[in-house]
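Hello,

I think I submitted the heme C job twice by accident. Can you confirm which output corresponds to this input? Input:
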Amino acid sequence: MPLLFKKIIVAVFAVAFLAAVIFVGLIERERARPEKAAVAYADEKTRACIACHEEKGIAVDWNRQWAQSRHGEMGIGCIACHEAKPDDPDKWEHEGSLLTHAPSPNDCATCHETTVKEFAQSHHAKAAQFIGSLDNILGEVIEGGPAANLGCKQCHGSTVAMDEKGVPVVGTWPNTGIGRVNPDGSLGSCTACHTRHRFSKQQAREPRTCGRCHMGPDHPQIEIYEESKHGLLFAAFREDMALDADEWIVGKDYTAAPTCATCHVSATSNLAVNHDVGLRISWTLRPLYSKKQDKWEERRNRMQSVCLRCHANTWVSHYFRMYDDAVDLWNTKFAAPAENILESLKSAGKITPTPFDDPIEWTFYELWHHEGRRARMGASMMGPDFTQWHGFYEVGKHFYNEYLPEAENLLPGVADSVLQMPEHAWKQGMTPEQIRKMLEFYQQRYGQKVQ
Ligand code: HEC
Ligand code: HEC
Ligand code: HEC
Ligand code: HEC
Ligand code: HEC
Ligand code: HEC
Ligand code: HEC
Ligand code: HEC
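Support: Only one job matched these inputs. Its output is below.
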């Protein structure tokens, strides 16, 4: 290769390299600019926090996240949330300032009063108050304290205790459970959905934010959502969702798909953003039986008005009717009979009053707490596989093949009246006509008999 040619190639590469360096440099400068501005305009104490933490290498990324956040942009410094008053129960002396280690909703309330009030009225705020529940006996007693600290309480919230210096007591913190009980008496943790220090609404609109807790065998909302048409449309047209919009009104700013926030929290043209996630739900699907909530019609109207931003009337009203029927089916066919049987076993002394010490109590628990909930939850949020295969199918399988036989074993005859219900009559034997149809189906489709 001639020397000149080599020189030209080297020169071309050198220029390209230089251009790339300058380009990246410009981008970096652009990115750094707002952060610098945030720090430059911040109050003096905040600048001191940042400078010292940068120097000592303490959680420096929080500084950057803060600087890029809406708070940083608006000059709302570290001190706005972390400062404590001398009579605050969570006060903490830190480098000459009176601070709080773990800001609570009360620390946000100075500026976000309405939001904090709405949140305080929600079931979310009360989520750590489950001491009397069967689940709690499972977590704290049958499993054990350390399991509950890093299990139940990470979703539901711990009761945060501070030592005399204002440092959180181990075991009670770190914790950002949704109903955390704070030393100042306030309930909840805003960081459960708005991670620090971005405190972004964009992130809170993401289904995964809710899915951190709303998942798993007993409340698989994220799985249901991801398998529903709504979830698949969200994945397919994510870029049309305007998740970073300041105002985010369904039907106006986006129409591609609803997220959890769309249906439960965010604004429509006639509903404002509301941090009480229960305001739009009419049933409660968590207990053994589902009941309609107080003022359920108002709640349902709110939810339906969300659907109606995208769907038409008949679609929405028929869907809710089918959902109600599925909930009633669970209540009457399985929940009530299963409970009656358990009561009979208890009063006959066949099982003890202590929960979970008799195997049938585990069968009963899974029947309603896992399978029966999944069936209802699938029906509520357009997840047919959860209504059917993870839901009613499992209910049927375990009700007939485990629960009833176990009960009969303990107290023969206890299931008689249940089996006389018309819903369970098929157990006495299907009609020859039904059996003939079934055999014909397999004969026609596969040329073989099912058995
Ligand atoms: C002169 C240095 C200095 C200043 C100023 C300073 N900090 Fe710190 N900060 C530290 C050091 C060192 C640590 C890590 C050691 C510790 O936990 O005390 C720390 C830790 C923290 C922690 C975490 C404690 C833990 O262990 O989890 C918080 C919260 C905190 N600082 C908040 C602030 C805030 C808010 C400000 C400004 C109002 C501030 N700091 C100002 C030096 C400083
Ligand atoms: C909008 C309110 C808000 C602002 C502003 C804010 N923080 Fe925080 N900070 C929080 C909350 C909430 C937590 C989480 C406390 C908890 O555990 O519940 C936290 C936690 C922390 C922690 C300890 C958590 C860890 O991961 O170790 C540090 C350190 C901290 N903040 C530093 C800062 C610094 C430095 C600034 C300013 C650059 C700042 N914060 C600004 C609300 C705020
Ligand atoms: C000193 C006042 C102040 C405090 C304290 C404060 N905020 Fe804010 N916050 C603001 C202002 C102002 C905005 C911008 C409002 C707007 O965009 O309309 C904002 C915006 C927000 C947003 C929306 C950000 C976005 O993506 O647009 C969230 C979420 C938020 N704050 C959460 C919190 C939480 C949680 C706390 C307590 C840990 C808190 N704030 C404490 C003043 C404050
Ligand atoms: C992955 C997060 C997560 C874990 C871990 C978890 N839960 Fe839950 N729990 C939830 C969610 C989310 C709900 C609400 C489900 C719904 O509304 O559909 C819930 C509901 C409940 C309820 C029903 C509350 C009511 O109002 O009826 C109780 C009681 C409960 N959980 C207790 C516990 C206990 C005790 C543990 C540990 C043994 C535990 N949970 C573990 C997330 C969790
Ligand atoms: C269950 C999750 C969740 C929790 C917990 C939560 N938020 Fe939000 N927050 C959201 C969602 C979702 C949005 C976005 C609403 C929208 O679409 O504009 C939001 C938006 C906001 C906004 C922007 C203004 C607005 O109303 O749209 C502020 C401010 C805010 N939250 C403050 C808080 C404070 C303060 C707390 C604690 C009391 C808190 N949030 C707890 C989910 C949550
Ligand atoms: C940190 C865990 C956690 C996160 C994150 C979370 N939730 Fe929850 N949610 C719970 C728990 C726990 C309950 C049950 C509370 C109870 O009844 O004790 C619950 C209950 C609910 C309920 C039932 C309310 C009622 O009044 O019956 C709805 C609806 C709900 N959550 C929606 C959401 C949405 C939407 C998001 C995201 C924007 C979200 N949640 C984020 C833990 C969480
Ligand atoms: C298309 C709107 C829509 C979307 C999207 C949606 N939901 Fe729902 N959700 C509903 C409806 C409708 C109900 C039942 C309301 C009723 O009972 O009246 C419900 C019920 C619930 C409940 C109450 C369960 C109980 O125990 O009573 C929770 C919790 C919940 N949704 C969480 C979520 C989460 C988390 C997501 C996202 C992963 C989500 N939802 C996505 C519409 C939606
Ligand atoms: C942001 C717009 C939007 C909102 C809000 C919305 N949907 Fe949808 N929904 C859609 C779209 C788009 C489809 C897919 C239509 C198709 O199949 O082509 C869909 C599909 C459905 C389906 C069909 C599911 C399937 O598997 O075929 C049902 C049922 C449904 N929605 C009910 C509801 C209900 C009930 C609500 C309110 C609780 C609601 N939707 C809220 C946009 C929305």
